Amino acid sequence: MNFSKSLIQWYLLNKRDLPWRNTTDPYLIWLSEIMLQQTRVAQGLPYFLRFTEAFPTVFDLAEAEEEQVLKLWQGLGYYSRARNLHQTAQKIASDYQGQFPQSYSELLQLKGIGDYTAAAIASFAYNESVPVVDGNVYRVLARYFEVETDIASSDAKKEFTALARELLPKGEANVFNQAIMEFGAMQCVPKNPDCNHCIFNDSCAALQKKKVAALPVKSKKNKVKDRWFHYVIFADEQHHTLVQKRSAKGIWHNLYEFPLIETTASEPEADVEKRIVQQKLVPNAIQSVHRDATASTLHKLSHQHLHIDFWKVRVKGTLKGGTDWESVKKLPFPVVIFNFIEKERY
């Protein structure tokens, strides 16, 4: 059986109709690839449509304010992608006159574009003969060819890329790369794939040797860090509140949040309340402090679990730098905070 030919035939019959597949415009392909990193298609598609409506060209994205970009990205996570997207759009608009580089090696020079994204743009937009290797590709190749290399190891990327390159049919890199990714996303899925109705069920090494569930091999993830966030939602006599831009590097950089007290472990309510009063986050006299128990949540990120509480604090007088709630809603927040704001819990 010709693996590549069969895969392409499967793809042409089964592929999903997605807007970024109906174009060779590198701008649209780039947008989709950045959005779909660490994100399912079903989640990313509405964002793609909103972005392309707001920013139909790379010039439109380049000219936007960062806050506007982050607001549209709100809820998609991994916000460094949005910041890099904006900065790269500005570079393409200014240094490349709006024209994307047309080769894999040149694309790699742009911020936020790594091996996979460069290969995707180069092959989908320009049909350059370079293989794409993402999680779906690792899985398909590991199972079909019984590759037992740990995909988290330093050697894996080189080995799987070399194998994918051997399989690239001449002149069809664009369709083959999309085919193998789609096959991994729809057919050769991580858990309980329907091997009985697979086009490769008579030639897949993992299926023949009953190793489908064991491949690809992947070592355990890094230990998850727990953090305790106590957000303080002030309200003055004009019903204004305080928000601040998160300037520290790390999660949610340049997004907005309420004044924050972070602790190294869970603490009794009375102790946190004491912290809020003693830290004098605002000069106003405090009238009342209480935790909104219905808003407490555990927010799971890839390497961190955030234990989040929201504390409502009423103060006398007027907050310096206070903001009304309608204005607050227009700012970009981490989705876990915006969900609190949307429910108007105060």
UniProtKB/TrEMBL annotation:
Gene3D superfamilies, alphabetized: Helix-hairpin-Helix base-excision DNA repair enzymes (C-terminal), Hypothetical protein, domain 2, Nucleoside Triphosphate Pyrophosphohydrolase
Keywords, ordered alphabetically: 4Fe-4S, DNA damage, DNA repair, Glycosidase, Hydrolase, Iron, Iron-sulfur, Metal-binding
Listed EC numbers: 3.2.2.31
Cofactor note: Binds 1 [4Fe-4S] cluster.
Enzyme class per UniProt: hydrolase
Cofactor: [4Fe-4S] cluster
Limits of the HhH-GPD domain: 35-186
Lineage: superkingdom: Bacteria
Function: Adenine glycosylase active on G-A mispairs. MutY also corrects error-prone DNA synthesis past GO lesions which are due to the oxidatively damaged form of guanine: 7,8-dihydro-8-oxoguanine (8-oxo-dGTP).
Family recorded in the similarity comment: Belongs to the Nth/MutY family.
Name of the protein in its database record: Adenine DNA glycosylase
